Amino acid sequence: MGQKDANTFEGRIESLITPTMEAMGYEMVCIRLQGSGGGRVLQVMAERQDREGMTVEDCATISRDVSAVLDVEDPIKGAYNLEVSSPGLDRPLVRQKDFERFAGFEAKIETHELLNGRRHFRGRLLGLAGDKVRITLDDGEWQVPFPGIRSAKLIMNDELLTAPGK
Protein backbone atom coordinates (compact mmCIF):
# COMPACT_ATOMS: atom_id res chain seq x y z
CA MET A 1 0.00 0.00 0.00
CA GLY A 2 0.93 3.60 -0.37
CA GLN A 3 4.17 4.83 -1.76
CA LYS A 4 6.34 1.93 -2.74
CA ASP A 5 9.44 1.04 -0.78
CA ALA A 6 12.41 2.29 -2.82
CA ASN A 7 13.98 -1.17 -2.42
CA THR A 8 11.19 -2.92 -4.34
CA PHE A 9 11.13 -3.13 -8.13
CA GLU A 10 8.06 -0.89 -8.42
CA GLY A 11 9.53 1.45 -5.81
CA ARG A 12 12.66 1.94 -7.90
CA ILE A 13 10.58 2.68 -10.99
CA GLU A 14 8.39 5.07 -9.02
CA SER A 15 11.43 6.93 -7.70
CA LEU A 16 12.73 7.27 -11.28
CA ILE A 17 9.57 8.69 -12.85
CA THR A 18 7.90 10.64 -10.02
CA PRO A 19 10.15 13.72 -10.29
CA THR A 20 9.40 13.99 -14.03
CA MET A 21 5.66 13.62 -13.46
CA GLU A 22 5.62 16.18 -10.65
CA ALA A 23 7.58 18.68 -12.75
CA MET A 24 4.91 18.27 -15.45
CA GLY A 25 2.08 18.99 -12.98
CA TYR A 26 0.97 15.41 -12.27
CA GLU A 27 0.91 13.25 -9.18
CA MET A 28 1.65 9.53 -9.08
CA VAL A 29 -1.27 7.52 -7.69
CA CYS A 30 0.16 4.04 -8.12
CA ILE A 31 2.35 1.90 -10.31
CA ARG A 32 2.07 -1.82 -11.08
CA LEU A 33 4.03 -4.20 -13.26
CA GLN A 34 1.75 -7.03 -14.37
CA GLY A 35 2.14 -10.09 -16.56
CA SER A 36 5.24 -11.97 -17.64
CA GLY A 37 7.47 -12.37 -20.64
CA GLY A 38 6.60 -10.19 -23.63
CA GLY A 39 3.10 -9.60 -22.24
CA ARG A 40 4.21 -7.44 -19.34
CA VAL A 41 2.41 -4.15 -18.74
CA LEU A 42 3.71 -1.30 -16.63
CA GLN A 43 0.58 0.48 -15.43
CA VAL A 44 1.01 4.05 -14.21
CA MET A 45 -2.00 5.73 -12.58
CA ALA A 46 -1.73 9.48 -12.29
CA GLU A 47 -3.79 12.55 -11.61
CA ARG A 48 -3.36 16.24 -12.17
CA GLN A 49 -1.97 18.26 -9.27
CA ASP A 50 -4.68 20.88 -9.87
CA ARG A 51 -7.37 18.16 -9.39
CA GLU A 52 -8.85 18.83 -12.83
CA GLY A 53 -9.95 15.75 -14.77
CA MET A 54 -7.35 13.80 -16.70
CA THR A 55 -7.61 13.92 -20.48
CA VAL A 56 -6.31 11.62 -23.19
CA GLU A 57 -3.73 14.31 -23.93
CA ASP A 58 -2.57 14.24 -20.29
CA CYS A 59 -2.07 10.48 -20.48
CA ALA A 60 -0.21 10.79 -23.79
CA THR A 61 2.07 13.50 -22.38
CA ILE A 62 2.90 11.39 -19.31
CA SER A 63 3.45 8.32 -21.48
CA ARG A 64 5.86 10.15 -23.79
CA ASP A 65 7.94 11.72 -21.00
CA VAL A 66 7.94 8.67 -18.73
CA SER A 67 8.94 6.46 -21.69
CA ALA A 68 11.94 8.73 -22.29
CA VAL A 69 13.04 8.40 -18.65
CA LEU A 70 12.58 4.62 -18.69
CA ASP A 71 14.45 4.30 -22.00
CA VAL A 72 17.46 6.11 -20.51
CA GLU A 73 17.44 4.35 -17.13
CA ASP A 74 16.34 0.94 -18.53
CA PRO A 75 15.05 -0.51 -15.22
CA ILE A 76 12.86 -3.14 -16.92
CA LYS A 77 14.68 -5.84 -18.82
CA GLY A 78 12.89 -7.15 -21.88
CA ALA A 79 9.73 -6.06 -23.62
CA TYR A 80 6.79 -4.40 -21.88
CA ASN A 81 3.97 -2.02 -22.66
CA LEU A 82 3.47 1.25 -20.78
CA GLU A 83 -0.12 2.04 -19.89
CA VAL A 84 -0.96 5.44 -18.38
CA SER A 85 -4.41 6.10 -16.95
CA SER A 86 -6.32 8.16 -14.44
CA PRO A 87 -7.52 6.43 -11.28
CA GLY A 88 -11.18 6.87 -12.30
CA LEU A 89 -14.10 7.38 -9.95
CA ASP A 90 -13.86 4.02 -8.21
CA ARG A 91 -10.23 4.82 -7.67
CA PRO A 92 -7.80 2.81 -5.62
CA LEU A 93 -6.81 4.37 -2.31
CA VAL A 94 -3.10 3.75 -1.95
CA ARG A 95 -1.58 6.66 -0.04
CA GLN A 96 -2.43 7.76 3.48
CA LYS A 97 -3.42 11.17 2.16
CA ASP A 98 -6.03 9.46 -0.06
CA PHE A 99 -7.94 8.37 3.04
CA GLU A 100 -7.94 11.95 4.33
CA ARG A 101 -8.85 13.46 0.98
CA PHE A 102 -11.80 11.12 0.48
CA ALA A 103 -13.11 11.19 4.07
CA GLY A 104 -16.90 11.18 3.95
CA PHE A 105 -17.11 8.86 0.94
CA GLU A 106 -17.88 5.15 0.83
CA ALA A 107 -14.99 2.74 0.38
CA LYS A 108 -14.06 -0.93 0.46
CA ILE A 109 -10.96 -2.02 2.33
CA GLU A 110 -9.39 -5.47 2.41
CA THR A 111 -6.63 -6.34 4.88
CA HIS A 112 -3.79 -8.84 4.59
CA GLU A 113 -4.76 -10.50 7.86
CA LEU A 114 -7.87 -10.78 9.98
CA LEU A 115 -8.62 -7.81 12.19
CA ASN A 116 -10.92 -8.81 15.05
CA GLY A 117 -12.35 -11.61 12.90
CA ARG A 118 -12.78 -9.70 9.65
CA ARG A 119 -10.76 -8.91 6.57
CA HIS A 120 -13.32 -6.93 4.50
CA PHE A 121 -14.62 -3.50 5.46
CA ARG A 122 -17.18 -1.47 3.52
CA GLY A 123 -18.35 1.83 4.91
CA ARG A 124 -17.79 5.57 5.10
CA LEU A 125 -14.23 6.84 5.43
CA LEU A 126 -13.56 9.08 8.41
CA GLY A 127 -9.92 9.95 7.68
CA LEU A 128 -6.87 8.92 9.68
CA ALA A 129 -5.94 8.51 13.32
CA GLY A 130 -2.15 8.27 13.24
CA ASP A 131 -1.34 5.40 10.87
CA LYS A 132 -4.83 3.91 11.14
CA VAL A 133 -7.61 4.42 8.61
CA ARG A 134 -10.91 5.24 10.28
CA ILE A 135 -14.03 3.80 8.69
CA THR A 136 -17.58 3.57 9.99
CA LEU A 137 -19.53 0.38 9.31
CA ASP A 138 -23.00 -0.76 10.34
CA ASP A 139 -21.55 -2.03 13.62
CA GLY A 140 -19.62 1.15 14.46
CA GLU A 141 -16.25 2.75 13.81
CA TRP A 142 -13.19 0.65 12.99
CA GLN A 143 -9.55 1.66 12.82
CA VAL A 144 -7.62 -0.32 10.23
CA PRO A 145 -3.80 -0.12 10.39
CA PHE A 146 -2.60 1.42 7.10
CA PRO A 147 0.36 -0.99 6.71
CA GLY A 148 -2.07 -3.94 6.97
CA ILE A 149 -4.25 -2.87 4.04
CA ARG A 150 -4.03 -5.16 1.01
CA SER A 151 -6.34 -3.06 -1.17
CA ALA A 152 -8.79 -0.19 -0.86
CA LYS A 153 -10.97 1.69 -3.30
CA LEU A 154 -13.81 4.15 -3.42
CA ILE A 155 -17.32 2.90 -4.11
CA MET A 156 -18.81 4.60 -7.14
CA ASN A 157 -22.18 6.11 -6.25
CA ASP A 158 -24.20 9.27 -6.92
CA GLU A 159 -22.49 11.11 -4.06
CA LEU A 160 -19.07 10.49 -5.59
CA LEU A 161 -20.26 11.32 -9.10
CA THR A 162 -21.49 14.77 -8.05
CA ALA A 163 -18.56 15.65 -5.74
CA PRO A 164 -16.65 18.68 -7.03
CA GLY A 165 -12.89 18.51 -7.47
CA LYS A 166 -12.23 15.09 -6.00
Q: What is the percentage of strand-forming residues?
A: 35-45%
What would you call the structural class? alpha+beta
Order of helices and strands: HEEHEHEEEEEH
Helix content: 25-40%
Roughly what is the average pLDDT, rounded to an integer? 89
Largest sheet: 5 strands, antiparallel
Strand order of the largest sheet: 7-6-5-4-8
* Total helical segments: 4
Indicate the overall shape.
globular
Overall radius of gyration: 17 Å
Low-confidence stretches: none
Termini separation (Å)?
20 Å
Number of strands: 8
Quickly describe the structure.
The protein contains 4 helices and 8 strands, in the order αββαβαβββββα. The protein is of the alpha+beta class and 166 residues long.
Features:
single chain, 166 residues, alpha+beta, three-stranded mixed sheet
Account of the protein in words:
The structure is a single chain. Helix 1 (9-23) packs across helix 2 (56-73). The chain has a five-stranded antiparallel β-sheet with strand order 7-6-5-4-8. The protein has a three-stranded mixed β-sheet with strand order 1-2-3, covered by helices on one side. A hairpin with a 2-residue loop joins strand 6 and strand 7. The protein is globular and about 50 Å long. It has helices at 9-23, 56-73, 96-101, 158-161, and strands at residues 26-34, 41-48, 81-85, 106-115, 118-129, 132-137, 140-145, 149-154. The chain is 26% helix and 37% strand. By secondary structure, it is an alpha+beta fold.
